[in-house]
Amino acid sequence: MVDLRTEVAGVRLRNPTMLASGFLDETGGSMARVYEAGAGAVVTKSIGPQPREGYPNPTIVELDAGLLNAVGLPNPGIVEYEREVKRAHAAGAVVIGSVFGKDADEYATVAAKMATYGVKAIELNLSCPHAKGLGTEIAQHEDAVQEFTRAVKDVVSLPVFPKLSPNVQDITTFAVAAEKGGADGIVAINTLKAMAITPELKMPSLANRFGGLSGPAIRPIGVRAVYDICEKVHIPVIGVGGIGSGRDALEYIMAGASAVQVGTAIISKGLGVFNEITKEMASLLEDAGFRSVPEAIGVAHA
Amino acid sequence: MVDLRTEVAGVRLRNPTMLASGFLDETGGSMARVYEAGAGAVVTKSIGPQPREGYPNPTIVELDAGLLNAVGLPNPGIVEYEREVKRAHAAGAVVIGSVFGKDADEYATVAAKMATYGVKAIELNLSCPHAKGLGTEIAQHEDAVQEFTRAVKDVVSLPVFPKLSPNVQDITTFAVAAEKGGADGIVAINTLKAMAITPELKMPSLANRFGGLSGPAIRPIGVRAVYDICEKVHIPVIGVGGIGSGRDALEYIMAGASAVQVGTAIISKGLGVFNEITKEMASLLEDAGFRSVPEAIGVAHA
Amino acid sequence: MPRIQVVPLLEVVRETPTTMTYRFRADLGGQPGQFLMVWIPRYDELPMALSYLGAVKGITVRDYGDATHILAAFNAGDRIGIRGPYGNVFRLQGEKVLAVGGGSGMASMIAAIESFAQQGARVVTAVGAKAANELLFVERANASGEVHIATDDGSRGFKGFVPALAEKLVEREKFDQVLTCGPERMMKAVVDLARKHHVPVQASLERYMKCGIGICDACSLDDQLVCVDGPIFTAEQLEGSEDFGHFRRDKSGRRVAA
Amino acid sequence: MPRIQVVPLLEVVRETPTTMTYRFRADLGGQPGQFLMVWIPRYDELPMALSYLGAVKGITVRDYGDATHILAAFNAGDRIGIRGPYGNVFRLQGEKVLAVGGGSGMASMIAAIESFAQQGARVVTAVGAKAANELLFVERANASGEVHIATDDGSRGFKGFVPALAEKLVEREKFDQVLTCGPERMMKAVVDLARKHHVPVQASLERYMKCGIGICDACSLDDQLVCVDGPIFTAEQLEGSEDFGHFRRDKSGRRVAA
Ligand SMILES: Cc1cc2nc3c(=O)[nH]c(=O)nc-3n(C[C@H](O)[C@H](O)[C@H](O)COP(=O)(O)OP(=O)(O)OC[C@H]3O[C@@H](n4cnc5c(N)ncnc54)[C@H](O)[C@@H]3O)c2cc1C
Ligand SMILES: Cc1cc2nc3c(=O)[nH]c(=O)nc-3n(C[C@H](O)[C@H](O)[C@H](O)COP(=O)(O)OP(=O)(O)OC[C@H]3O[C@@H](n4cnc5c(N)ncnc54)[C@H](O)[C@@H]3O)c2cc1C
Ligand SMILES: Cc1cc2nc3c(=O)[nH]c(=O)nc-3n(C[C@H](O)[C@H](O)[C@H](O)COP(=O)(O)O)c2cc1C
Ligand SMILES: Cc1cc2nc3c(=O)[nH]c(=O)nc-3n(C[C@H](O)[C@H](O)[C@H](O)COP(=O)(O)O)c2cc1C
Ligand code: FES
Ligand code: FES
To answer: Is pLDDT of A135 > 60?
Structure first.
């Protein structure tokens, strides 16, 4: 039997799958349920200092090759969110707290508060492609990534994982900046800048016009990002983008990821996707002669 | 009946579909056949100064949401290619010559030669994401885009269409640079940097490891690029990326494209795809109350 | 293929001073109790129950807030976007069914009422509204069985809330199941009374929705999602719920009074 | 789902000093004349005809250049990637079939020979090779009909090229169709003689391939694509061809002598 346990910057996981930020993680009840369904950890919705309604509907459009969304970072704010994290912890979930803000200070403040809720690590959403004026836009510069990471590292004693955007010329320069800022790991990738138009109505399909693309469409882009990043940094990488099967997860792991996150695949496969992924992963690893997940990390670089 | 004729920078097209560069356009026989199958124009394979073999196989991988390729710009060189353009012209095809080189001089030389073959416009491939050391890599800087465009404009009296890469932070800055360089139109987008791994073999699926992603996966990224570019430049835009139906084509046209190019969809639909697109486009335009293609260009900006 | 279909409205029918039915042809199935996400171009996208399931589908919408008010001005020929059908289905259990509807809640139940009657069940419907002119689908329900009416102001039928009317009916006759849809406090009362009388109940809940497909968490109720686990829940599922009848989530995900 | 399947080799069988058959289970169909793109990890991806179509598929490969030489060292348990099947199919026309194979060309035809025989046709096969020990699939062809042999050095059967042997057979007996696969000049001779004798012919062509699915233009022959329009062409399709028997494309797309 293949040992599916893995570990990312000291965070121990029963298996390498995590719930990606933004999926069924606005409420503690849902996070508990996802953990019970088999995820190795759950990442919270990205939480900011204040409650935020997000964009008007339509916020989600299913396309042939992926999902387009512009939810606009709705969240109940860090204060109210304590209740949700507690509820998830009550079910035994391993929780990673995702945060955002408008500048380094806000990132640090929200992260510090999140840390007091007992989460195991902090994820920094530096990469939402459709929220104007937030840190997520500012963080399109290497300096900002380094600065925000450092600011958060200075106030929490948890592992910090900046989550990077693929909407850049070379994602590895951002990964290096994050590492310089003291990051304990990198999460890649967030959604790609995208748009759909409904010709019958002569208008964009999202109320916000623009949105972020996720799902199968972006998997090859994410795998490449992870592969490239792993050649440039010495900290673990968590892969995300279009993962819906054990095979998909192994693409990321062999590209160098220590763990993976799953989001859009929940639409087609439901919460059973986590067990499905770990089962298929175990069987493929066994076929390929591996006894544990860590043995397979990065083997495609050989 | 909707009038499908359109025009891009003086190049008249019987309908707004073109064969995208790199598909069935290494030989004149194939280009003739594509034109006969209904394309409004055919863009040649990107041709360089010398013959080039490209990368070893596997050069193509079909994925669930798109196509990954690293053919590596194989081409017979501009001298031998004369024969192929002649053959396409003999069938009455409207031919746009795509060229590449390692610097501004080479682009200009190849373009000048291509112009003598009687093509109707020159497309500059500034964007192939997997050919190291060619202009396609150099052209990841706005200055180079402007310089290469200018160099070609200086030596040909045809419309010049730089083709841009989506692998940048903000494609509109490149479009503006091209416009400054004298471009008569913009082609967007080329493929996205991507990778696939075959877990059973623990290695990348392409011989070149990295490749470019095309097909349905990238359509929302292309539509957004065209939409954004059209807000920043005053020259026509030709949309490409994941188009396989009249509906897809109209997304680009309503985003602002004056014409569209079709590549990967040929795999699933064959050469009938051009007629299928124009037919569906006509019927959707009619339903929406348009009498011609130009009327629909950019309406999603309203 | 995109999952959104754009359809022209074939017909717009006024049902009550504040409620309209919109009919359209669409290439989708749909069973009693399921809903669509309905895109009102430039305004909003909202969940709406299928009130007609045949070849020409229908939704029946109360002019309630910003977007539904815009929709109220739509005419035949205007276009809406739809996706779905989503959610679970009202299930026939036994032979005698009591349907308890409040306000626009009848829109979610009417297809079940008709379908259960067609399957041979005896369907008794208790319809409630503020006033007589706000009663919805009384005739359709009547054509499928027996109808009892309650109005808050007594302008027609029983004066008072529909759960009280329902209780009378349950005391009078042994039902095999109860269906209900309407304001949540009303449904809470119906669920409680059905439980008291040991009648199985299916309640169709409403929550603010964004995705409709089980990813955004906007519609959560305890650890259930109204869009994919619901909208229809049984008394057993709602038993012990901290949220049902008490709390809902606002657009930011905050838990607020229902 | 990726279109590439990775399969372990179940068995590797030496057919001649330079030719091996590789057997594997794969989740794909395949009809006589179709081919797979075969990925030899770290080396190349090449088109190879299906020489066995049953549950356990097979390809039969001549140790020819760089990649096939690597493949020649593969053993049972080693893995290859495959995608396909691609291309068109040999079609049975009439009742008497002459199959003319040269060298590894027999690999493309043997499944058709067996299938046509099973459908009740009389199949006469003319197999050619440089020398006796290079003859491929003589026994399988023999089990499906009559076999005639030609070797360049006369070490077995008719001394000379197989088209000459084929001509004798055509003069002896009226065939309803001719199949052929082998070196292009050989096929050209076979097509010409079949045409002369007014016998319909299907020739399976080989061209350098990259995509195998009709987009890269590497395999073009005049305005036909060997990967999707072929690999099997009729005499009518080849009539007037400027390329057949004369030119092929090199990896850069240059037209060079065949
Ligand atoms: C499964 C389901 C089926 C429904 N079926 C019907 C129906 O058949 N007929 C009908 O009239 N109504 C139905 N509703 C309720 C309907 O969706 C809301 O009344 C409507 O969205 C109000 O929109 P508004 O913009 O006019 O109001 P707003 O001004 O936006 O808000 C008024 C209130 O309506 C609710 N609301 C707003 N947007 C949504 C949303 N996206 N999802 C859910 N609630 C929302 C909120 O509670 C809000 O406070 C259904 C709701 C659900 C969940
Ligand atoms: C439809 C089809 C079916 C085939 N079936 C068989 C078969 O069943 N058995 C068999 O032994 N051979 C078959 N071939 C030929 C086989 O693909 C080539 O002989 C083989 O690719 C040589 O590879 P190499 O690397 O060993 O030689 P190389 O050293 O690469 O080249 C030698 C020559 O082989 C040819 N070649 C190389 N690569 C390719 C390629 N990707 N596609 C086509 N030709 C190529 C070229 O003409 C080249 O000059 C088939 C070819 C085609 C097109
Ligand atoms: C509806 C939706 C909401 C999201 N919200 C967030 C978020 O709040 N914070 C964040 O870092 N990423 C967010 N993402 C991005 C995902 O976490 C993930 O990076 C992306 O969807 C790619 O993974 P997938 O293909 O498995 O969905 C969101 C994505 C979607 C589709
Ligand atoms: C196999 C292949 C070869 C290509 N070759 C070229 C090329 O030579 N020059 C170029 O500008 N673009 C090339 N492209 C990019 C296409 O022209 C096009 O921009 C891209 O495939 C997106 O369109 P599609 O989704 O319709 O295929 C190539 C794409 C593929 C898949
Ligand atoms: S509406 Fe998004 S999860 Fe239910
Ligand atoms: S091999 Fe690519 S077109 Fe035939």
So the answer is: no
Cβ(A180)–Cβ(A233) below 8 Å: no
Q: What is the pLDDT of residue B140?
A: 76
Q: Express each pLDDT in B269-293 by its tens digit.
A: 999 999 999 999 999 999 999 999 9
Q: Are D165 and D143 in contact (CB under 8 A)?
A: no
Asked if residues C85 and C35 have their Cβ atoms less than 8 Å apart, the reply is: yes
> Distance (Å, rounded) from C-alpha B25 to C-alpha B125?
14
Compute φ and ψ for B177, nearest 5 degrees: -60, -40
Please state the φ and ψ torsions of residue B13, each to the nearest 5 degrees: -125, 135
The residues of B annotated as belonging to the active site are 128
Q: Collapsing DSSP states into helix, strand and coil, what is residue D40? A: strand
Q: Is D246's pLDDT higher than 80? A: yes
Instruction: State how far the alpha carbon of D245 is from the alpha carbons of A43, B81, D186, D193, D238, in Å.
Output: 63, 22, 9, 14, 10
Q: How far from D101 is each of B113, D17, D109, D149, D235, CA to CA, in Å?
A: 45, 18, 7, 10, 16
Mutation test residue for ligand 2: of D60, D64, D106, D224, the one with most atoms within 8 Å of CB: D64
Max Cα–Cα distance, chain B, nearest Å: 55
Chain D residue with CA closest to B66: the answer is D2
Residue of D234, D226, D49, D201 lying closest to D137 (CA atoms): D49
Provide ipTM, 2 decimals: 0.95
Nearest to B57 among D1, D3, D44 (CB): D44
Q: B261 with B43: CB under 8 angstroms?
A: yes
How does DSSP classify residue D174?
-
D210 lines ligand 6 (CB under 6 A): yes
Ligand with the closest atom to the CA of B240: 4
Read off the tokens for C133. 């002119």
Show Cβ contacts of residue C158 under 8 Å, excluding neighbours closer than 6 positions. Answer: C148, C149, C150, C151, C164, C165, C168
What pLDDT band is residue A133 in, cutting at 50, 70 and 90?
low
Q: How far is CA D61 from CA B201, D19, D33, D130, in A?
A: 22, 5, 15, 16
- Going by the DSSP 8-state scheme, the letter that residue A47 receives in this structure is B
Structure tokens at C6: 């754009």
Q: What residue type is A282 in one-letter code?
A: A
Q: CB count, 10 Å around CB of A276?
A: 18
Q: Give whole-number Cα distances, C193 to C95, C160, C199, C204, D161, in Å.
A: 20, 16, 9, 16, 95
- Across A20-59, the runs of DSSP E, i.e. the strands, are 41-43
**Angle of helix A219-230 versus helix A171-180 axis, rounded to 10:** 50
Residue A302, exposed/middle/buried by CB under 10 A (0-12, 13-18, 19+)? exposed
Q: pTM to 2 decimals?
A: 0.95
Cα B260 to Cα B239: distance, rounded to the nearest angstrom: 5
* 8 Å CB contact between B178 and B164: yes
pLDDT at C150 over 60: yes
Query: Cα(D1)–Cα(D182) distance, rounded to whole angstroms?
Result: 35
**Residue B178 region by backbone torsions, left for phi larger than 0, else alpha for psi between -120 and 50, else beta:** alpha
- Round to whole Å and give the CA distance between B1 and C32: 42
Classify residue D122 by burial, with Cβ atoms within 10 Å: 0-12, 13-18, 19+: middle
- List chain A residues with CB under 8 Å of C42: 203
Q: Is D46 in the pocket of ligand 6 (CB under 6 A)?
A: no
Rounded to the nearest integer, the mean pLDDT of chain C is: 95
Chain B within 8 Å of A244 (Cβ-Cβ)? no
D193 touches chain B (CB under 8 A): no
The H or E element that residue A67 is part of is strand A67-69
Averaged pLDDT score across all residues of chain B: 95
**For C181-216, what is each residue's pLDDT tens digit?**
999 999 999 999 999 999 999 999 999 999 999 999
D12 alpha-carbon distance from chain centroid: 19
